[in-house]
Fold this protein.
Amino acid sequence: MDASLFTSMLFATVVAGTPLIIVALGLLVNEKAGVLNLGAEGMMAMGAVAAFAVTHESGNPWLGVAAGMGAGMAMAALFGVLVLTLMANQVASGLALAIFGVGLAAFVGKPYEAVALQAVPPIRIPFIADLPLIGEALYNQQALVYFSWALFWGLLWFLHRSRAGLVLRAVGESPASAHAIGYPVIRIRYLAVLFGGAMAGVGGAFLSVFYTPMWAEGMVAGRGWIALALVVFATWRPLRVMVGAYLFGGVMITQLFIQGSGLQIDFPSQLLSSLPYWATIVVLVAISRNRNTIRLNSPVSLGKPYRPDA
Amino acid sequence: MPIPPPPTAPQPDPAAVPARLVLQGIGKVYPTVVANDDIGLAVRAGEIRAILGENGAGKSTLMKIIYGVTRPSCGRMFWEGEEVQVESPAHARSLGIGMVFQHFSLFETLTVVENVALALPGKPALDELAQRIVEVSARYGLPVDPRRHIHALSVGERQRVEIIRCLLQDPRLLIMDEPTSVLTPQAVHKLFETLRRLADEGCAILYISHKLDEIRALCHTATVLRGGKVTGECIPAQETPASMARLMIGKELPRCEHDAPQAGGEVRLRLAGLSHASDDPFGTDLRDLHLDVHAGEIVGIAGVSGNGQQELLRVISGEEPLAERFPVQICGVEAGRLSPGRRRRLGMAFVPEERLGRGAVPTMSLADNALLTAAHNQGMVAAGFLRFERARAFARRCIDDFNVKCGGPAAAAKSLSGGNLQKFIVGREILQAPRLLVCAQPTWGVDVGAAAFIRQQIIDLRNRGCAVLVISEELDELFEICDRIAVIAKGRLSPVRAAGATSIEDIGVWMSGLWPGAEHAADAPAATETPHA
């Protein structure tokens, strides 16, 4: 493999992994508070279409990202009312949200199907972008790629160094105990759900405004579900989410390259296309089998409604 | 419990010390029950006041009201002379009220210092806080390592964390909800010393319990609740357990009748060199256990929880089958690899520790729960079909014979109070006329009257020739009903002694793993409170 090919594949891998990282880290916060939101796919779709529409009308991609974030949060707020205020079942509500969001996005996005956006130029970080091999791939990227890295470091600090993160983990582990020592469990869960929705919206916006600057029905293509799976298989640890997301992106790009290269290989292309999905899951399961890790990191109350007694 | 002599301790002079907390006419009405009715109460600085009452007497509800977890329906509360309405636990803490819960409110996946930080106002730096924890734990004799995770601590250590968490808030009123139910006698001693020191420093303490001898040893004054009402006040040191029991349950304390054991019964349960590695990372490995339980005797196993009791129960019940047959022998059959159902058909009955979830399915009716263990034994299955009328009739018999207060066989298991559900479960097992009964904590969290009833039923079963194995942390209970007693510590079993030939103090020492001839004594110097270390 020559150097420029390596650089361009690394570049593509990072781009492919970025929306997964943003969405999965948002869901991680969501689930650490004990709320399981299966509606990620729907929130991403709404984020993607809102971001595309606003970018198209205003010409400003950053207004688009903000709109995507807002759309994701609006969907999450709806979910929050259902499962946190009305105590509806989280799994059923989440599935409904996923289906609803994808459908609504297709409906809203109809007028935008045939239009294209101007590609947003990447941001080049001086000096380190000149590094051989990796410089062009890592440091001449879209702003949201840098954002995903900042989100990762911020989340590591938040979960393990900040008081708010400690409270969040406590609420996810035992809402009854957290209530007994005086924390507003429902409010904290709302904030976590809204954060998850916001990140899903940003992830969707990345797809429709930066990754492929266009809108098409079904363009989220299961990334919301993969992000959900990543969080679980990464045992709710941010670093493993990153590893899983880039692994997924890397395998995705590699198999696309193999399919597009015209290499004559005796392997069904359908199986090749499914490679990123199962490769990611196999690897994450393999590195996360330790029972200790699972027990220490999984939010015990995940998916269980909690109603504080008055 | 080894009880030190009743305190000649300084009684705070009622006239000289102002009341720290006064309750007037407190009431709490839930949709189906009046939990508290016109409760009046006062506690002064330096006073240790017992709140005495059976399960369901309204003690816990009252404490939750004081601590702001729930709101009273009516009544007034005065804190240091000023009327207050406690809005939340955080508000209670800001007033200076601390509470140690019966069911710990600790977060298992967090460390000690993180747990403490969660309960403190402001944003204390964890390193400084860890230092303060070490200081406080040294000052009050409550050793605990602030960096450890809660799930790796023993129950006694967890309670220390709860207490330290309260002490760091400099409480002026400390509420202790049934704190000794999980402690060894020695640990109870230390706890009482800590509480006395706190009271001497001017802290008021509300001590909730139904253990009369503890209250006599520790408390200056007592308020007795029954059925949500105050039925009396007394000075425990001047009362006898019997007179306090009358106030608490409204009648004489029931005693168990216990005949001499019948010697020479056949072996119904034999553990022959049972070893088993736990697959739970925080579990205890069982190491070379030998035990015989004969027909017509009750054998008790004492120990601090977390020393292998769970694992032993799972291995005996069949929940965790072994690789080999011989280590567990039930009624003469090598049963190590049999499933729980097969073991039951050999004549074994089993009362697990957790009532809800293992002993009974919470959302299912009592009749369905009866079906779960008695289906084959009581002919509730015919040609592969269930005979529900038989299940209902059997559940009805359990309810009648064991005085279970409930809405009938169709009532959901979770709708029963703990004591009544336990009576139902014990009844379900005993009425199947087992040849061997294995029960864990048969009276845990059950009120005095129901506990005495359950113990008597177990003794009667043994008098009918059944072999009984009881695993319990309550030494009083074991000494009351058992013919022979052993101790489990760090996954090993002590020699078995006749109950009359040993004492609570000896067994208390054995609970640290230090019995005569214990070859592992040297490698387990601090075994009392660190079974997982």
User: Anything to note?
Assistant: The radius of gyration of chain A is 20 Å. Residues 41 and 222 of chain A are 7 Å apart (CA to CA). The mean pLDDT of chain A is 90. Strands of chain A lie at 123-124, 140-141.
